[in-house]
Amino acid sequence: MAEVSGLPAPLTPLIGRARESAAVAALLRRPDVRLVTLTGPGGVGKTRLAIHVAAACEPDFAAGVYSVSLAPIRADHLVLPAIAHAFGLRDHGDRPLVERLRHRIAGDDVLLVLDNFEHVLGAAVEIVTLLTACPRLHVLATSRSRLKIGGEHEFAVPMLSLPDPGSNAAPQELADTGAVALFLYHARALRPGFALHAANAATVVEICRRLDGLPLAIELAAARVTVLSPEALLARLTNRLQLLTGGTYDHPDRLRTLRDALMWSYNLLSIDEQILFRRLAVFAGGCTLEAAEVVTPSAVSTLDLAASLADKSLLRIDDDPDGEKRFGMLETIREFAWQRLTDAGEEQMARSALADWCLAFAARVEAGLMAALGGHWLDRQHVEMPNMRAALSWLAESGQIERALRLATSLARFWELYGYWDEGSTWLDRLVRQSAAAASDVPMRARVLAELGTIALRMRQFDRAIDCFEQSLAIARAASDRRGIAFALDNLGYLANDRGDRAGAESLLSESLRLYRALGDERGMAKALDTLGLIAMLHEEQAAAAVLLDESLMHSRAAGDHWLMAITLTNRGVLANHQRAWTDARAAFDESLSLARAMGGNWLIELNLSYLGLIAQIEHNEPRAAGLFAESLARCRDRGPQLPTPRCLEGLAAIAFRWGAAARAARLFGAAHAMRAVIRGPMLPADRAIYAPIVEDVRRTLGRPAFAVAWEAGQALETQTAIDEALAIARTQPAPLATAGLTPREAEVLYLLIAGRKDRDIAETLFISHRTVHHHVARIYAKLGVHSRAEATRTVRSRLPSTLDQSPSPFPGTRLPE
After folding, report:
1. Of all residues in the chain, what percent are helix, strand and coil, respectively (each to 5)?
2. pLDDT tier at 658 (50, 70, 90 boundaries)?
3. Contact, 641 vs 460, CB < 8 A?
4. Residue with the larger pLDDT of the pair 580 and 241
C-alpha cells in the first residue's frame, strides 16, 4: 500500500527555490486552477518543492492537506484506493471509491498532493473524475511527465540558479545563488568548517555548473567533500555517474544515486523511446529533428518519440537559429544515455550515423556560405560545431582518414570566416600528418594542405603558409588537378609579393589566372584578379589596380560569391583611400561591411570597421571614429594581433592625443608599431601620411625623453592590454573647447597655426586649398583683433588660459608654444 500522511516533515530547508515556491503557491491559490503538475527530471527537487508549497498553502485549505506517495504503487488501478486510504476510507466494494470520496470531501477546501505520478499515468483519468466530483478539491502532482488531462497547469521545475558565466562576483555573492548555496549547505553538514573563499569559489561554481544545477547531483557531490577537495572533486566529474553515489538513507532507493534516479525514468520508457533516448546521446550539442532521424528506427515517428521524451523531462526542446525545434539533454542525463548506448552495443552504429549526417550538413553549409544568406549558414554551423568536433574526433581516432579529410575540408571555410583559426589549423595539421602516414586520398590531401595554408595566411604565419601551398601545389601537379594548381599558385603569388618578389608573384598569378580562365571558373578568376589588383595598389599603380579590381568584382558578382565580392570591395575602398577619394572609399567599405555582416561573424567586419573609422577621423568626426575603432577592436579581442588591430590602435592614439592624453597616445602608437612587426603588416603609405605627422607632434608635446619612455612601454604591452587601453579612450569624451566664437574649422586652423604649422602644411593636413587657409586666417585675425601669428598666440593664451591648459586641441598634431 502507498505511504500516506498529512505532510512529511523535511529534515532540511528548501534552498534556492523562493521564486519557484511563490509561483506555484500563487497558482494553487487561484480559484480557476484545480490541478498543478510539477514536472522535471529525477533529482530536480519536485517532491521537496511540492511539500514546501503545500505547507505554505495549508492555511488556504480549511479541510486540510493530504499527501500520497505513489512511488511504491505498481498499477494504475491502485491509485484511487491509495487516495481513499489517505482520507481514511477503505474499499469495501459497496460503492465506487469516487462516490465515497465525494461524500468524504463534500464541499470542503482540500489540497491533495500526489507525488511521483510518472509511472501510473493511466490513472490520470480517475483524477479528472475526482476533480469533477469534488469542485473545491485542488491537486498538486509531481511527475517526470505531464498528466495530459484537461485543466492541468504544468510547472516545469528548473535547475537551480547558477552564477553568470565569467562572473567576478565576490564569494559571498556567489554563495547566494541557488546551486552554490545548496552545495555549501550539504558540504557544511558533513564538514562544518567548509567555507567558500577566493581560492575555491571558482571551483565550486564550476562543479555546480558541470552538474547542470541539478539538486540531487549537487547534494551527492557535496557529500564527497569529506574525502575530496573541491579541486579533486571537479577533476573526477568526467564520470559523474560513478562519483555521485551514496545518498543518505532517508532518500528513496530510486534517488540514492544519480544513476538510480535516471534508471527509474529509463525503465518507464517504451522500447522505441529507450532506443531513441540512448542514441540521441551521440549528439554532443543537441540536434534538430532532421539529425535525430538518422539514428532513429525507420518504422517509428522520431517527432512523436522525441516529444514523448521531452514530456518525460529527459529531453529539452529549444529553438535553433532557424526557429526549428532542437532537442538536447542535460550533460548528467546524456552521460547516463551514453552508458545505455554502450551497453546496448549501438555506439559504433550511432557514431557512424552522426558522421554521415555531419558530412552531409557541412557540405551544404560550405555551398551556402558564399551566397547572400551566408550568415544563416554560419549561424547554423556554429550551433552544430559540438557535433562536428565529436564526429571528427571519432573519424580520426578510428582511422577513417578519408571521411575525416572530407569533413575537415567542408569545415575549413567556416573555420576561416568565423575566426576559428587555431581550431581549424590544429585539425587540418593533424589530418595532413595522419593522411600522409596512411597514404590516403592524395588529391584530398592537397586540398587539406591548401586550406591549412589559407588559415595560416589569416594567422599571419607566412612561412608556414608557403610550405603548405608548395606541398599542395606539388601534389596537385602530380595529380593533374588544374583547379588545385591554380589555387596554390594564386596564394603563392600573394606570398611572393610579400617577400618582395613582385616579378615572381605576377608570374605565379598569371599562370593561376590562365588556368582559371581555361576552367571557366568565375570564382577563381575573381580571386586571382583581386590579388593582382592588390599588388598593383601596393606598388602605387593606382590606375592598373582599379582595372584589375573592377574586373575581379565583375567575376565575383557573376559567381554569386558574396565573400569574394566583399573582399574586393574592401580593396577597392583601400585604393580610393590612397587616392583621397573619401566618398568613394566610404561607399566601398559600407557595401563590403553590409555583405560581411549578412554573412555572420567574420574577420572582414572588423577590417571594414577599422577603415571606416579612419575615414571618420579624416573627416574630423572623432566620436564616430572612436566608436568604429572600438567595435573593430572588441571583435579582434580574441583573435590575437591582426591587421585591423594596429590600425585601430593608431586611430585611437590620434584621438587620445586630440583629447589631451599625449602619453597614452605615445603608448598606443608604440604598441601598434610593435604589433605590425609581429604580423608583418607595415603601415600603408596613405595611412603613414596621416599618422606620421601626428606621431611627431606627440613627440614634440611630451619631449623626446618622455616620448621614448612611453613608446617603449607601449611596445612591451600585451595585445589584450593594449586593446583595453585603447577601448578606454573610446569610452571617454573630450573636454569642451572655448575658442572665442570661432567656427570648428577656424578653431582647427587656429590651433595648427599657433602650433607652428605653415599655411601649406595646414592645407594638406585639413585637406583644403591653400587659398581657403588664407581666408580662414583672415577671419580668425579679425575675430581675435590681431594681425600676426605671435599676437594670436598671446591673445588666445591671455583670454583662454584654463581652457588651453585643460582642453586638447581640436585636431591631432598640435602643440601650443610655451
Report:
1. 65, 5, 30
2. confident
3. yes
4. 580
Does the pLDDT value for residue 293 go beyond 70? Answer: yes
**Number of Cβ within a 10 Å radius of residue 227:** 9
Cα dist from 297 to 273, 275, 342, 361, 370, whole Å:
10, 8, 17, 21, 36
The neighbour count for residue 626, using CB atoms within 10 Å, is 27
Nearest to 593 by CA among 561, 622, 567: 567
Say if residue 503's pLDDT is above 90: yes
CB under 8 Å to 694, separation ≥6 — which residues?
653, 654, 657, 665, 812, 813
* Nearest by Cα to 396 from 447, 365, 437: 437
Q: What is the mean pLDDT of the chain?
A: 84
In angstroms, the CA 108 to CA 482 distance is 87
Reference 165, options 209, 204, 198, 130; nearest CA is 209
Of the candidates 138, 119, 122, 180, the one whose C-alpha atom is nearest the C-alpha of residue 54 is: 138
CA 800 to chain centre: 50
Q: Of 416, 409, 370, whose CA–CA distance to 599 is shortest?
A: 370
Q: Would the pLDDT of 227 be above 80?
A: no
* CA–CA gap between residue 242 and residue 707 (Å, rounded): 62
CA atoms in the 13 A half-sphere facing the CB of 25? 18
pTM: 0.67
> Strand, helix or coil at 139?
strand
Contact 97, 103 (CB under 8 A): no
10 Å CB burial of residue 343 (0-12, 13-18, 19+) is exposed
Could you write out the three-class secondary structure of 505-557? Answer: HHHHHHHHHHHHHHHCCHHHHHHHHHHHHHHHHHCCCHHHHHHHHHHHHHHHH
Q: Three cell numbers at 316?
A: 529539452
Residue 180 pLDDT more than 50?
A: yes
Pair 478, 466: CB distance under 8 Å: no
Q: Work out the pLDDT band at 803, boundaries 50, 70, 90.
A: very low
Range 187-207 average pLDDT: 88
Q: Which residue has the cell 511540492?
A: 50
Q: What tens digit of pLDDT does each residue of 513-539 get?
A: 999 999 999 999 999 999 999 999 988
Most confident of 367-381, 695-709, 781-795: 695-709
Read off the amino acid at residue 305.
L
Distance CA 803, CA 556 (A): 54
Name the pairing type of β-strands 152-156 and 287-288. unpaired
